[in-house]
Amino acid sequence: MKKQITLLLLFVISILNAQEKTQTYSFSLQQAIDHALQNNYSAINAGRDIESSKEKKWETTAMGLPQINAGVNYQNNFVIQKSVIPAEFLGGTPGEFATVAFGTKHNMIANASLSQLIFDGSYIVALQASKTYMKFYQNAKQKTDSEIKEMIINSYGNVLLAEESIKILEKNKASLEKTLFETNETFKNGLIEEENVEQLQITLTSINSTLNYNNRLLELAYKLLKINLGINIDAELKLTDTLDNLTISNLDLAFSKNEFVVTDNINYKMAMNFQEQRQLEYKLEKSKALPSLAANLNFGYNAFNDGFGFFEANQNWFNYSNLGVSLNVPIFSSLARSSRTQQAKIAFDQAKTQLTETEQKLKLQFEKAKSEYEYSIEQYTTSKNSLSLAERIENKQQIKFKEGLSSSFDFTEAQQQLYSKQQDYLQSMVDIINKKAALEKIVNKN
């Protein structure tokens, strides 16, 4: 019976695993971005960092709230320590000493304490720092999301590029195979030289090799996209957007004309956050020159017995309680405290300089990203026109070649030029999508 149950469980698990592996996804680019922001591995851990920072904030807050502790201490004096006293205290001969044991074999203490921080400058700064600490991870999450969005756009575009490249290569292969067949038949009839056939065979071999490479590239591009999406690498994935549609939707020169607000950039926010941290560290060192005040209340019971009878009704328990106030006033540290304060101030000044540097670099990055995006649009128009010209040139050379008015070298050169312009055109479309994403990342557009 146990064997049958085990086999049944294994069967169910195998079915579940198979279903998981064959799970099918269908995403537009925006759907892919939305899915990745929730399921990408880095996004998940960035969210956990925020939750951890919330707990850290409460941990810091709790340091200034009442603290209650309780404990029980049991001691077994199996050999009681001896003491020597004058024998005359016990009725003995003066000048002699007697050995006696003080205490009981079993001792037990039960106590509880309440402590409360009344004032500490370091605690006030720590509360401010905990807010900055949480803000840092919130900014880090925003930066992670921004990077994931750009990463998905790039990997999504790479898949579409590989797919479109394969389609064009297969079309070129079919056209070339037809031309090669016709040329070979003409050669068999003795109307052209064998060199023309061999030249086309070389071109066809090159196309087959490129086609095989792109098929492998497509498989890798899909797997990379799946990893970025946070889905099983063996799952089926279908992309619903096309390269043409995405290119047209990202043609927006007006967007690059918008004014750049550097304070919206996440890297600037994180640099500002870093400056705030250094400022709080400076305040922390200065606060250590202030006095601190704390209070505590203790309450407990003691019990003593030569036998272990602490839980018996006739056991005597002796209570005690006390209230204490502790005031600590820093007076002189041989300038060590002053040195630490100056070090913190220098670090704060460095952070302010780094913030200024970050601002200037971001402005330069914006100008560069803006220029590259505008250039990608120009290249798209240029490559589109060049492709149209290359197609006409290749078509004319093909007609001349078939009619014997052009050599195989001229025809091959026109083919290679066409193939090159086809790839340039596809790459120009991907560049528009990627450069727009890079520009959006800098201006912090959601």
**Principal-axis shape:** elongated
* Low-pLDDT regions: none
> Taking all residues together, what is the mean pLDDT?
90
Strand arrangement within the widest β-sheet reads 2-5-7-8
Distance between the termini: 58 Å
Class by alpha and beta content: alpha+beta
Number of strands: 8
Report the radius of gyration as a whole number of Å: 40 Å
The proportion of residues forming helix, as a percent range, comes to 55-70%
Could you give the order of the helices and strands?
A: HEHHEEEEHHEHHHEEHH
Share of residues in strands: 15-25%
Major sheet summary line: 4 strands, antiparallel
Note the total helix count.
Answer: 10
Please tell me about this protein's structure.
With 446 residues, this protein is α+β, with helices and mostly antiparallel strands. The chain has ten helices and eight strands. The chain has helices spanning 2-21, 29-39, 41-62, 121-188, 194-229, 243-249, 253-256, 266-287, 336-402, 408-443; strands at residues 24-27, 67-76, 82-86, 97-101, 106-119, 236-239, 292-305, 318-328. The strands form three sheets. The chain has a four-stranded antiparallel sheet, with no helix packed on it. The chain is elongated and about 145 Å long. The model has no long low-confidence stretch (mean pLDDT 90).
